[in-house]
Design brief:
It comes from Culicoides sonorensis (Biting midge). The structure is a single chain. The protein folds into two domains: 261 residues, 3-Layer(aba) Sandwich (Pathogenesis-related Protein p14a); 228 residues, Pathogenesis-related Protein p14a (3-Layer(aba) Sandwich). Helix 2 packs parallel to helix 4 and helix 8 packs parallel to helix 10. The chain contains twelve helices and 16 strands. It is α+β, with helices and mostly antiparallel strands and 537 residues long. The strands form four sheets. Strands 1, 2, 3, 4, 5, 6 and 7 form a seven-stranded mixed beta sheet that branches. Strands 10, 11, 12, 13 and 14 form a five-stranded mixed beta sheet that branches. Strands 8-9 form a two-stranded antiparallel ribbon. It is globular and about 80 Å long. The two termini are 44 Å apart.
């Protein structure tokens, strides 16, 4: 699947990614020997170059870098797959029957190795044979995205969007495909979905690259991502995708040790093997805050765009109409107020009682984020009502950005008017934007994007020499941007799918229609984010 993405706002993405040019391949595996044993009547093995390389080198695919996936990355891919498999197995996917013995997925290094062999060719074509020492006929899903002018580095967003798109193909095929898989001619794609949904596909391994190429229609550089995921078994014609029936009631069909999974109640797993197969996340390093060198960060993360916090190269000059600018870090009360205003509106929309908007099944409660606040302060100090080119932090992807300016007034009245103005874009918005976002309503969309768990804001007061008055300006940054044509939130019973964020998530204590971490609280706002932010232009 090839997706060309267009940014609503010219903002860069950020994630600290470690790159490796060398594929994670076991050099002791003789793929040419495997080709002779397992690839008869199939074709050349992706790992055997004895008779020539499987694919020609792509001359328009340069600066290929393989992303070294951490255990955290791999667990995220597994979680996305298992959440969707669990939902399908439960019978909660429209028109599709429940599955009685669908297996929980785990990571497999053999499948990862052959996925890396494939993806480094940077070509959107399936290889002919990808057999491994353990698996004869693995399946394969591919995805490629391209961005103009910058390298998108929010890798988890790439994984989420790709895997969700594969699964969404269930809408394009009749459910009877489950009983008897077949290749239907002149039909929309559905093989990605069925491959993800095969009951016996309990192993997966993926590999990911970034690359550059010149746009065929201009001299601009396009920055791309490609993901290859290999699965235990491919789609087999005339074979069922899964056995229908009450969820996890036929687990022992896979062996006497198989039981309902502890992690996904509608899936099956072997508890004897689960502990050995579970990948432990690396220990997270504490994020630095105001000491970040944003100019160095810009070199790594902003492509051709300028980071708003890079001194002398921010893409801004101070607005000459603004005099006596004073940057005001938010007080604890102001932060709490902004959080309450945002979460009030999120809770309202998620309830399904606002206008014609449907209820949301996993909209998350917002918390304050110091790193977003810091970048917001760097932006607002220039006194411009226009968006920054790159707003990356060390832990957030492309932050969404809302701006507001008005004549000077009481702090809380000003903040309330700003949030109301952004939310009021919803008055004219059709409910269809929930599934297919339109650019015109971005201030509202940033506020209600379901996974938007972080916000950070900063304000200034200044003398407006043009209108001859004292004024205020506010910048709020949100965890993620919203893309054109993307889904804003998942429809369903409020807070009914909080566990899709992890077992530590449940219905918020404060907002009954939102999700939050158990025992989490915004009380820590006072302790962790009350420091003033020093800004130097």
């Amino acid at each position: 699947m090839i997706t060309r993405m267009c940014l609503i706002i010219n903002i860069n993405l950020l994630l600290s990614i470690i790159y490796s040019m060398t594929a994670t391949i076991d050099s002791s595996v003789d793929y040419c020997k495997i080709e002779k044993q397992k690839c008869k009547n199939i074709g050349q093995h992706i790992g055997c170059s004895a008779s020539g390389y499987p694919f020609k080198k792509q001359s328009n695919c340069t600066n290929i870098k393989q992303v070294k996936l951490s255990n955290r990355n791999k667990n995220y891919i597994l979680k996305l797959h298992n959440n969707l498999r669990n939902k399908l197995a439960s019978g909660n996917i429209q028109k599709y029957p429940p599955a009685s013995r669908m297996l929980e997925m785990f990571w497999d290094t053999e499948l990862e190795a052959t996925a890396c062999l494939h993806v480094n060719y940077c070509i959107m074509e399936h290889d002919e044979c990808r057999a491994t020492p353990s698996y004869h006929y693995p399946g394969q899903n591919l995805r490629l995205t391209q961005y103009t002018n910058f390298l998108q580095t929010d890798i988890e967003m790439e994984f989420h969007n790709g895997i969700q798109e594969w699964f969404e193909e269930y809408k394009d095929v009749e459910p009877d495909i489950i009983e008897n898989y077949e290749r239907r001619l002149n039909h929309k794609q559905y093989g990605h979905f069925t491959l993800m949904s095969k009951e016996n596909n309990e192993r997966i391994g993926c590999c990911h690259i970034t690359f550059e190429r010149k746009s065929p229609n201009s001299k601009k550089i396009e920055y791309g991502h490609m993901l290859t995921c290999n699965y235990l078994e491919t789609n087999v014609p005339f074979k069922m995708v899964y056995l229908t029936g009450k969820p996890s009631t036929r687990c022992k069909d896979h062996g006497s040790n198989y039981k309902p999974s502890k992690n996904y109640k509608n899936l099956c797993s072997n508890p004897v093997e689960t502990e050995k197969l579970t990948l432990k996340n690396e220990i997270s390093k504490k994020e630095p805050d105001v000491s970040i060198d944003y100019c160095k960060l810009a070199l790594l993360k902003c492509g051709n765009n300028k980071h708003v916090a890079c001194k002398n190269d921010s893409g801004f000059d101070v607005n000459p109409n603004c005099k006596n600018i004073q940057v005001h870090s938010m007080t604890v009360d102001q932060k709490s107020f902004l959080l309450k205003e945002h979460n009030f509106y999120r809770n309202l929309v998620a309830s399904g009682s606002y206008n014609q908007f449907p209820s949301a099944s996993k909209m998350i409660e917002m918390k304050w984020d110091k790193s977003l606040e810091n970048v917001a302060c760097h932006h607002v100090q220039y006194c411009h009502m226009k968006h920054g080119q790159c707003l990356a932090t060390s832990s957030n992807g492309v932050p969404g950005q809302n701006l507001f300016a008005a004549p000077n007034e009481d702090n809380f009245s000003f903040l309330k008017r700003a949030v109301n103005t952004w939310f009021n874009k919803s008055y004219d918005a059709p409910s269809s934007i929930v599934d297919n976002f339109e650019n015109s309503y971005y201030t509202f969309a940033f506020m209600i994007k379901e996974s938007q768990s972080k916000i950070g804001c900063c304000s200034i007061t200044y003398e407006d020499s043009h209108f001859k008055r004292y004024s205020r300006m506010l910048t709020c940054l949100y965890e993620n941007i919203v893309y054109s044509n993307a889904n804003i939130y998942t429809k369903g019973k409020p807070a009914s799918e909080c566990n899709e964020y992890g077992d530590e998530f449940a219905t918020s204590v404060t907002y009954k229609n939102l999700c939050a971490k158990r025992n989490d609280s915004n009380i820590n706002v006072a302790q962790s984010t009350s420091e003033s932010v020093k800004i130097v232009v």
